[in-house]
Amino acid sequence: MFIDTHVHLNADQYEEDVKEVIQRALDAKVEKMVVVGFDRKTIEKAMELTEQYPFIYAVIGWHPVDAIDCTEEDLKWIESLASHPKVVGIGETGLDYYWDKSPKDIQQELFRKQIKLAQKLDLPIIIHNRDATADVVRILQEEHAEKTGGIMHCFGGSVETAKICIGMNFMISLGGPVTFKNAKMPKQVAEEISLDHLLIETDAPYLAPHPYRGKRNEPSLVPLVAEEIARLKGLSVNEIAKKTTENALKIFRINE
């Protein structure tokens, strides 16, 4: 069995066929999926999906790209929803310096607020990082994010950065990019980081693994991520599936 620890089944790309996408995932032995909501629309849809499917869970938060749009009212709403038993994390939050919609200081302020919220709620925090590694690590350290720990989502950093994050009680989640031929750092992380600290994800509909790169991603493709990690580590796919599932159940506190 596999768990897709980060998927956006609430995205517009699945509006026409989400039921079929979910069935294909189940057919591929992806038996649990964590849907991440990152603004009003996607959070509402994530919560709906958790009600419709017993094997779907939600992570809710506010994306750094849209930090400028987030109000105190939005954060209070997220906090109120987080009491739902199938909300298993806060996020995705973090920093994104690739897009320039939200100024860095506003992103950082919202990031800190969501770390504090995760600590208040005693939930793991799911981190988005794009072109902002030094600031992400610094803020996690300054805010004592190790109190809750969490997940470095779709990790693309170095082995050294991965080890720093693991030291703060964070899991390292690998997605489609680990299958890309030119993805040097994700492959190094897969090889060198202990399986005890790894998760797998799709980030679907984005970042489809090879040989589907550039196409719409789906949770049914998460086994391809596991297959590449298995190849790099010299282990069986079953071993990767078993351990990453155990890790996911533990970090999200999901009782089977």
* Beta-strand content estimate: 15-25%
The average pLDDT score comes to: 97
- Helical proportion, percent range: 40-55%
What is the makeup of the main sheet?
A: 8 strands, parallel
Helix-strand pattern: EHEHEHEHEHEHEHEHH
Beta strands, count:
8
Distance between the termini: 12 Å
Uncertain regions: pLDDT < 50 for 5+ in a row? none
What oligomeric arrangement do these chains adopt? single chain
Radius of gyration computed on alpha carbons: 17 Å
The strand order across the widest sheet is 1-2-3-4-5-6-7-8
Q: What is the SS-derived class?
A: alpha/beta
Q: What best-fitting shape do the alpha-carbon axes yield?
A: globular
Number of helices: 9
Describe the structure.
- The longest helix has 18 residues.
- With 256 residues, the chain is an alpha/beta fold.
- An 8-stranded parallel beta sheet has the order 1-2-3-4-5-6-7-8.
- The chain is globular.
- It contains 9 helices and 8 strands.
Short synopsis of the structure:
The chain is of the alpha/beta class and 256 residues long. 41% of the residues lie in helices and 18% in strands.
List keywords for this structure.
256 residues, alpha/beta, 18% strand
List the helices and strands and how they pair.
Blueprint: E1 2-7, H1 18-27, E2 30-37, H2 40-52, E3 56-60, H3 72-81, E4 87-96, H4 104-121, E5 125-130, H5 133-142, E6 150-152, H6 159-166, E7 170-174, H7 184-192, E8 198-200, H8 222-233, H9 237-252
Parallel strand pairs: 1-2, 2-3, 3-4, 4-5, 5-6, 6-7, 7-8
